[in-house]
Design goal:
Layout: H1 2-13, H2 25-33, H3 41-90
Helix pairs in contact: 1-3
Length: 91
């Protein structure tokens, strides 16, 4: 059981590099300002809102995986703790 808890903890602390939540200023200028004609503020807001929504959906899979690993690790840790407590109580 302790091995499973360790494996789940490793999954949680493993670095994930495919989060998407950054805006590259150079890309923003390229997409909205350097075009002919430049994008309107409303167009920029709409495009950025859609990009943020897409990033949230992409990140959600990673967050869900981490949440499930955390819940399983907590459940196994509580079972392990109860087993120790029952073992100590028998002594």
């Amino acid at each position: 059981m302790l091995l499973l808890i360790g494996l789940l903890v490793a999954i949680m602390v493993w670095p994930y590099y495919n989060y998407t939540f950054r805006f590259d200023p150079e890309k923003l200028l390229q997409d909205f300002v350097d075009q002919h004609p430049p994008a309107t503020i409303d167009g920029m807001h709409r495009a950025l809102a859609l990009r943020m929504k897409s990033d949230m959906a992409s990140n959600w899979r990673i967050i869900q995986r981490l949440r499930v690993a955390l819940q399983l690790a907590l459940f196994l840790w509580l079972l392990d703790l109860l087993a120790w407590l029952f073992a100590i109580a028998r002594i």
